[in-house]
Design goal:
single chain; 344 residues; alpha/beta; Rossmann fold; 2 domains; seven-stranded mixed beta sheet; 13 strands; 17% strand; elongated
Length: 344
């Protein structure tokens, strides 16, 4: 499904004064000068400055991550500069954000890359300048393009969703819609492939009655689902890349009066998503933990600034299946547990 884009290495960075140009490509500056507590001084005694680049600034998952990173920076006496693209898939916006942070001479950059390979040139330049770069939530390709990754095992998350939705069918022949994320995204591809493995079908299976990319957006997902249901209502299961997409799909399915016949699975585990599971809008969600990602990323940058010690490799920050209708053979938690732990 995903096609990797050619990476164009940039010969120079944007000048610090090009703020207007950055805004035009959709980079939102949320500078947080974090005071209080003991100052965290890096090499030469200067305050540690950390950049955070998320895919968007509106998706609740990234809102939570940004707040957690700001809290962790404040606790460590560091300064956080938070930037984002305009939408999931805005690779140019993320490239511009990384270039801006390099120009600001940050000690570390935490990034949730929208595209597996599209931001590699900017990351390479940041690391060449001695900046620690850590991927959160989404790995780059190759993995070692960043110093380290703190993220959900997205293949596992997809597999959990797929196994659950298939179990709910209880032997009925699957008639599936697949609502993916963004083309070129490692998260989208890994969750898609994991779901297929858990659901026990191949990508070319006739059981897949329709599919669409949604960029992880609720409104796009609702429109896509409405369009797919115009072609066929012979559907009993839906894969969704995340909870905003599940919400859009649920609205479209309810509008067709198909809620009782369709099982929707999803991934995220935000508090609103857990409440949606409790209300019966989705059958289950796979919880992930953006607060852990942010906490571990900020801690790694502050340690690097103090000691020069670098993290490495992939760290799985965890997944948990949340449902009030458990199935045999799959460990899960109910929504009471989910509301106590959502995204923590």
């Amino acid at each position: 499904m995903a096609h990797h884009h050619t990476v164009r290495k940039r010969s120079r960075l944007r000048r610090p004064g090009q703020g207007a140009a950055l805004l035009l490509v959709g980079v939102l500056l949320l500078a947080t000068g974090c005071g209080g507590g003991q100052d965290s001084a890096g090499d030469g005694g200067r305050k540690v400055t950390i950049g955070l680049v998320t895919k968007t600034e509106t998706n609740p998952f990234f809102v939570t991550m940004r707040k957690a990173a700001a809290d962790a920076a404040k606790k460590n006496g560091a300064e956080l500069i938070a930037l984002s693209g305009r939408f999931d898939g805005d690779n140019e916006g993320q490239v511009a954000a990384v270039e801006s942070l390099v120009a600001r001479d940050v000690q570390g950059i935490l990034i949730t890359p929208s595209n597996t390979t599209g931001v590699l040139g900017a990351i390479e330049e940041a690391r060449r300048r001695g900046i620690l770069v850590i991927a959160l939530d989404s790995a780059t390709e190759p993995l070692d393009a960043t110093d380290a990754t703190y993220a959900t095992d997205n293949f596992k998350a997809g597999r959990l969703q797929g196994a659950y939705v298939r179990a709910v069918l209880a032997g009925r022949a699957p008639q599936l819609l697949m609502l993916d994320g963004t083309e070129g995204s490692s998260v989208s591809q890994d969750r898609h492939n994991g779901f297929l493995e858990g659901f026990k079908i191949k990508d070319d299976s006739p059981a897949i009655r329709g599919r669409a990319n949604t960029n992880g957006d609720r409104n796009m997902a609702q429109t896509a689902t409405e369009n797919l249901l115009q072609r066929t209502t012979d559907v009993n299961s839906v894969y969704t890349i995340n909870e905003p997409v599940a919400d859009g799909a649920s609205t479209a399915i309810a509008g067709r009066g198909l809620t009782r016949q369709v099982t929707i699975g999803t991934i995220d585990g935000g508090c609103e998503g857990v409440r949606a599971v409790r209300a019966g809008k989705y059958a289950a969600t796979v919880m992930q933990f953006p607060v852990r990602m942010a906490d571990q990323g900020v801690a790694a940058v502050t340690e690097f600034a103090k000691s020069g010690k670098k993290p490495s490799g992939f760290t799985d920050t965890g997944t948990e299946l949340i449902t009030d209708k458990p199935v045999r053979g799959l460990a899960s938690h109910d929504t009471d547990w989910g509301l106590q732990h959502c995204w923590g």
